[in-house]
Amino acid sequence: MGGHTGRTGDDAIEVKITAWGWVAMDPFSQLILTISVTSFLTFQWLFHKVSPWMSTRISPGFLGLSDKQKVEWNSRTVSTFHALLVGIFCLHILWFDDAVNEDPVWGDPTLVKTNVAITTGYLISDLLLIFYYWKAIGDKFFVVHHLAALYAYYYVLGHGMLPYFANFRLLAEFSTPCVNQRWFFEVLGYPKSSRPNMANGVAMAVVFFMVRIAVMPVYYSRMYAVYGTEAFYLVPWGGRVAWICSSICLDIMNVMWMHKIARGCYRVLRSARKSKASTPQENGKTD
């Protein structure tokens, strides 16, 4: 693991006070802020304009949905796009960003900050939509989740710390498209035993396990490797809480969700097998 670069949270963002008392950010911090704002505006545009236009052409059933269902449909469409975008970016960083992989606490966070800035813009956009359309998509759990994530991302964007762990957590986004697709099938009236629904259910269980459960040993082994080192003690207490406590709480929920998903997938597959076995053949017998 690479050594500490000597940069602490206090000088991670270079600022200067002008003669008029204004605080001027360094060019890269301005770029990150611009990316976050652009991300926010882009996801608002996708929700209000792109998703309704695209959905009416891809799925005729969209027009028959209620207003509340259309709001959630557009929200989930945007969620799927965000998940694929940051998930692919996350894999690129894990595979090719040597600085972050060698020093997971204080490695060069340039690419991670860019990815987190995109997610920050999305989370703020989604929070705004949740509050505005509370009757349709309001959910206290998602509000808490988004605020907790933004708190953790503050330390990444504001102090440049823990880039490896922040990026690793974004791997979980790969399970989002399948979860959203299950809702799309349900609202369009697809039976749970239909082949598209069953295929998506199996894919959801497999992907959820891979990106949220199977990766736990890798994540916590890296955490254990840096615990107690000089780089670790340079992380302020707030950053450690946002890192360690949130990780443990999130993974407890992931295990619970994985249990529910696995049971649901098993029940659907078992039901489909029984249904197929009881279907009469041409000779009047069952399989």
UniProtKB/TrEMBL annotation:
Membrane-spanning parts: 28-47, 78-96, 116-134, 201-220
Membrane topology: Multi-pass membrane protein
BP GO annotations: lipid homeostasis
Protein name: TLC domain-containing protein
GO cellular component annotations of the record: endoplasmic reticulum; membrane
Subcellular location: Membrane
Chain's gene name: LOC127369523
Coiled-coil segments: none
Pfam families in UniProt: TRAM_LAG1_CLN8
Keywords: Membrane, Transmembrane, Transmembrane helix
